[in-house]
């Protein structure tokens, strides 16, 4: 009996960069995975992890969706720096139904669309984007208080186990 190898297995997915600030500033409702339109030098720079997506966001323009505010730094082997636009709008590749869904959610329910992470998925560079709602200061404090309490709780239980 021959075992089949699946193309979409989990070992083919490698994270390039994660925008950790998104999870601190937003509640993520739903996550989408989309392709990103890149030039050759950009792919080489991404392979060396010379990219920054913190502070970038998603905009709609002419029935398409674009990544705005991300920076890809050129690598040193590229001689002509005139062709390297480090801050340009990069088109995201999604199905039409997904674009319409995201547009409606952002306009009607006032959700924000933010980039979460950049991954390699079997030699394709993909961007994970999330449908998000902003957190206020109270939400951030409550989350921090809960995390501190869990840490303290585990410390107390360790002490109890040592004495018994």
Question: What would you note in describing this structure?
Answer:
- With about 160 residues, the protein is of the alpha+beta class.
- It has one domain: Beta Barrel (Small Protein B, Chain: A).
- It contains four helices and nine strands.
- Strands 1-8-9-2-7-5-4 form a seven-stranded antiparallel sheet. A two-stranded antiparallel ribbon has the order 3-6.
- A hairpin with a 2-residue loop joins strand 8 (about 110-120) and strand 9.
- The longest helix has 27 residues, at about 135-164.
- Mean pLDDT is about 85; it is low at about 1-5.
- Its main location: cytoplasm.
- GO terms for molecular function: RNA binding.
- This is SsrA-binding protein.
- It is found in: Cytoplasm.
- Keywords: Cytoplasm, Membrane, RNA-binding, Transmembrane, Transmembrane helix.
Keywords for this entry:
4 helices, 164 residues, two-stranded antiparallel ribbon, alpha+beta, single chain, Small Protein B, Chain: A
What's this entry about, in short?
By secondary structure, the protein is an alpha+beta fold. It contains four helices and nine strands; from the N terminus they run βαβαβββββαββα.
Count of helices? Answer: 4
CATH topology: Small Protein B, Chain: A
Radius of gyration equals 20 Å
- Briefly, what CATH class? Mainly Beta
First and last CA, distance: 54 Å
Strand content: 25-35%
SSE string, helix = H, strand = E?
EHEHEEEEEHEEH
Give the CATH architecture: Beta Barrel
Largest sheet: 7 strands, antiparallel
CATH H-level name... which superfamily? Small protein B
* Count of domains: 1
């Amino acid at each position: 009996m021959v075992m089949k190898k699946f193309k979409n297995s989990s070992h083919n997915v490698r994270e390039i960069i994660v925008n950790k600030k998104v999870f601190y500033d937003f509640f993520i409702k739903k996550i989408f995975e989309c392709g990103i339109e890149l030039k050759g030098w950009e792919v080489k720079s991404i392979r060396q992890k010379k990219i920054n997506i913190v502070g970038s966001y998603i905009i709609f323009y002419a029935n398409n969706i674009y990544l705005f505010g991300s920076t890809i730094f050129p690598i040193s082997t590229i001689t002509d720096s005139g062709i390297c636009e480090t801050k340009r709008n990069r088109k995201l590749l999604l199905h039409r139904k997904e674009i319409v869904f995201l547009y409606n959610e952002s306009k009607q329910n006032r959700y924000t669309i933010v980039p979460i992470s950049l991954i390699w998925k079997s030699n394709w560079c993909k961007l994970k984007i999330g449908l998000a709602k902003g957190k206020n200061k109270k939400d951030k404090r409550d989350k921090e208080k809960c995390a501190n309490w869990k840490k303290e709780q585990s410390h107390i239980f360790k002490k109890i186990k040592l004495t018994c």
